[in-house]
Amino acid sequence: MNTPIADFVQGCAAGGALRLHMPGHKGVPALGPEALDITEIPGADVLYHASGVIAESEKNAAALFGSAKTLYSAEGSSLCIRAMLYLALQYAHLTGKKPLIAAGRNAHSVFLSGCALLGLEVSWLYGDDASRLSCRVSPEELETVLEREKPAAVYLTSPDYLGVCAEISALAAVCRRHGALLLVDNAHGAYLRFLSPSRHPLDLGADLCCDSAHKTLPVLTGGAYLHLSKSCPAALLPAAEAAMRLFASTSPSYLILQSLDLCNAALAGDIPAQLAERAAQLDALKAALIANGWTLVGDEPMKLTLCPKSRGYTGTELAAALQKKGIVCEFADPDFCVCMFSPANSAAEIAALGRALAALPAKESIPGGPPPLGRPERVLSPRGAMLAPFETLPAAQSLGRVLAAPNVSCPPAVPILVCGERVDERALALFGYYGLERLDLVLPDAELGED
Ligand SMILES: Cc1ncc(COP(=O)(O)O)c(C=O)c1O
What distance in Å separates the CA atoms of residue 104 and residue 143, rounded to the nearest whole number? Predict the structure, then answer.
């Protein structure tokens, strides 16, 4: 597969032209890759008005992912999520539906800020309330909510941070029956397309989906895709670039764009075979861990999520113990320790994790998990809360007040309480459990501003 962006930039770097254009480093190395860091000079095309090398490379990506259209993001899935929400709003206008979106409660905080900016209302799908990070929504629950609320769109996070995949095919069928657009935050699952058979949301019925290429493929941090599926309403396709333009920087990183471009060649080459091999090795490791008494969660092949309290470790303690052995995990909290693999990890590295875990002595199990949240009282919409004047106070002084911002650390950036909801005793207990000490709270006078 050709690599038009990378070829163009390498040609520029080799050509030695006098650089009287941005960036200011002029190709002189300080970090290393400056010679390849260019801007939108003639021939480099223009992201989101693409007709040259970028358009050609995006067509390659669309062919690889089997989409009707794929656009690059140099600003992560965060940008693509805002663009998807804008397209959902366009869909509401086109169909005369309410600007309302039904969303799995484990949505990333950028979903909330996107809804707030666009004035989209949210109806939460709580699923099985398994944990803050997972919420398995059943087709029955979705059916009930779509019947009752008639939202324009549905938003699911799959896979989630723990590696739990939603039942996309069954949920997509429910959405189709109700004429609701299905948006999937597949930030963690770009590679799913290259498993055999594919487990990518586009192949399971999603209309729109974002993939953080940088999370699971050999792509620089920030590289992501916005995909529009072949089932997506045709009227949305021409609006996709405008949707990205609305939120994107006008100075996209050409290092990231080259990285996405080169990834196409890797995806057309060795990656599927390497993935199959690593997934099989990880399957074997997971089976061995379970046989040795470890508890795992999730069904995503390249993620290994441990629930180590049964072995006497909190997730955070386990991550610290692994770090002492030179292994740095993706994420840990009191209950979970998440390890992410890609084809760039060798079989030896997978084995090294297995040895490190085997060497940790089992201790007395730690009881308990996060206190339940229940269904918090909604006082303001996400927009009403996020745009309201606020003050930052210690969590201990927040009882009865309304949250103004998601107030989460990243990772995992999944809110405990959603902005616009009232802090009650249960939420306070959860903030304590996850170590959140300071909160942004709507000023009392502004609580009355809406609804
Ligand atoms: C589930 C989920 N969605 C979206 C995002 C945002 O993706 P990005 O960092 O590519 O902007 C993240 C980031 O961690 C995520 O975990």
Answer: 14
113 lines ligand 1 (CB under 6 A): no
Taking residue 23's Cβ as centre, other Cβ atoms within 10 Å add up to 14
Question: Domain end: 268, 287, 302, which one?
Answer: 268
| Mean pLDDT across 284-296 | 97
CA distance 122 to 269: 41
Question: Mutate which of 73, 75, 77 to test ligand 1's pocket (most atoms within 8 Å of Cβ)?
Answer: 77
Dist. CA 40–CA 47, nearest whole Å = 9
Please state the domain count of the chain.
3
Best residue among 106, 212, 330 to mutate for probing ligand 1's pocket (most ligand atoms within 8 Å of CB) is: 212
Confidence tier at 158 by pLDDT (50, 70, 90):
very high
Examine the pLDDT at 99 and tell me if it is beyond 70: yes
Give the distance (Å) from ligand 1 centre to CA of residue 222.
10
Domain end: 221, 244, 268, which one?
Answer: 268
Looking from the CA of residue 157, the nearest atom of ligand 1 is 1
Strand 151-157, strand 98-104: pairing: parallel
- 317-361 per-position pLDDT tens digit: 999 999 999 999 999 999 999 999 999 999 999 999 999 999 999
